[in-house]
Each structure stands twice: as structure tokens, then as C-alpha cells.
Amino acid sequence: MTCPGGGLAASARMGDQLTVRRDLPETLTTAMERSHRHPLMTWLIRFLGWDGLVPAAIWLLPFAVRLLVPKVPLLIEVMAVILPIVAFFLRFKVGVWHISINRCGRIVRSGQFVALCCAILVLALVDAVIILTNVMPEGALTRSDLVFLGYIYVFYLSCMIFALYPGLTNSPKPPHEYCE
């Protein structure tokens, strides 16, 4: 049976057994259905991984390149262009996937999508500036510049807190995706 939003789904009423969604890899869907983790714990894990590890990796990679190849600043300048763009599309794809599997209604998901797009666009600009600090002369960024970047990062985090919100119900799929 097909739902209005696309993808295949089973008829699902209270007490019926749900079938695997065909628009997601079977192992991933099975893992999602078997997951007994509380939605807020899922949210926290996504948030920490997404907003802690990914930016840290993007910001530390040019630093490592500068240590390994100190005489080629052009390489870091190229990275300042390429890394934020690649990270933007990676974040977009993964973020849209997270939004598509959460347990929120359509209106909330639409807001989450807007928040995701705003957040990752802003973070791409912050990524570029932070990467370029590896080739900037000493003192190029003042304290007020760093404070401004901090405010932008807080804006990013606020948007991502909302964008990655998984919903609170323990049902495997949100009620609006059940087909009659």
C-alpha cells in the first residue's frame, strides 16, 4: 500500500504488525524498529555526533595539513573552499535523512528542514573562516571576531537542536504516515 508521501508501507493500526519500509535499507529499518532507546537519548547522540565530532574533524584537518606540509598555504586555501562545500552536502543529506525518519508531524518536519538549511549554510561559512585561520597572519582575527563567530555557532546549535529533534512517541513511524 502506498502512502501519499511516497514509499511503500503496510496497513498499520493499533495491534497490527508493521512491515519494513521499502524506501530505507532493510538492515537500517530493522535496527530502527528493534531500537529500545528512548527518543531523547537518540536525539542527544545525534546532536553530540553531528555538532561535536563533524565540525571538529573539519576544523582539525587543515591544522594537520599545515603541520605536515607547512610550506604550501595554497593547499589550505583550497581546503577552505572545498571542505565546507563537501561538508554542507554531507550534512544536508544526513540531516534530511534524520528528519525523514523522526516521529514528528509534517509541519514540524517542514520547520526542521528550514532550520537544518539555515544552520548548515551558516556553519559552512564558519567552517571556511576557521579553516582560513590556518593561513591568516597572527592577529588577523580579533577578540570581537571570535565572539561573533561564537554567537553564530550558538545560532547554529539552536537550529540543530530543533532540526534533529526525533519526536517523543515510541511508535516506529509517525501517525501521519500510516495508510488507511
**Inertia-based shape:** elongated
Q: Give the C-alpha Rg.
A: 20 Å
Show unreliable segments: 1-22, 25-34
Distance between the termini: 9 Å
Q: Level of helix content?
A: 55-70%
Kindly estimate the percentage of residues that lie in beta strands according to DSSP. under 5%
The arrangement of helices and strands along the chain is EEHHHHH
Across the major sheet, the strand order is 1-2
> How many structural domains does the protein architecture include?
1
Briefly say what this structure is.
Keywords: Membrane, Transmembrane, Transmembrane helix. With 180 residues, the chain is mainly alpha-helical. It has helices spanning 26-34, 39-68, 73-101, 106-132, 143-163, and strands spanning 2-3, 6-8.
Structure description:
The chain crosses the membrane at residues 43-62, 74-92, 113-136, 148-168. Keywords: Membrane, Transmembrane, Transmembrane helix. With 180 residues, this protein is mainly α. It has one domain (38-173). The protein has helices at residues 26-34, 39-68, 73-101, 106-132, 143-163; strands spanning 2-3, 6-8. It has a two-stranded antiparallel sheet. Strand 1 and strand 2 form a beta hairpin. The protein is elongated. The chain starts with a strand and ends in a 17-residue tail after the last helix.
